[in-house]
Specification:
Layout: H1 3-8, H2 10-21, H3 28-34, H4 38-49, H5 53-85
Length: about 90
């Protein structure tokens, strides 16, 4: 996920972001203030965790990659479940 996708999908990602970075350091008010702005979010990670900008961006992209993997895995499971229930056309029954 890139910067533009993050900003465009902020409302869907907000809960996941809060789960990952926790309520001890990142409060709901912090997330309201960021409002999906990538640069402000990176600044928030720097402020709350003492990260350098580079480290904050690396952590962000690592977690977005994890989220992408989780979604792909879930979509694969759903696809398999849907297709396992369907009879195979053109395949004779044994």
């Amino acid at each position: 996920m890139n910067k533009g996708e993050f900003e465009g999908k902020w409302m869907q990602l907000r809960g996941q972001v809060r789960d990952w970075w926790g309520t001890r350091r990142v409060a709901a008010d912090d997330l309201d203030r960021v409002a999906g702005n990538f640069d402000q979010f990176i600044g928030l990670l720097q402020e709350k965790y003492g990260y350098t900008r580079r480290r904050a961006e690396e952590e962000f992209y690592r977690r977005m990659a994890l989220l992408r993997e989780m979604r792909v895995e879930e979509e694969s499971k759903q696809w398999l479940a849907q297709h396992a229930a369907r009879p195979q056309s053109g395949v004779p029954a044994s």
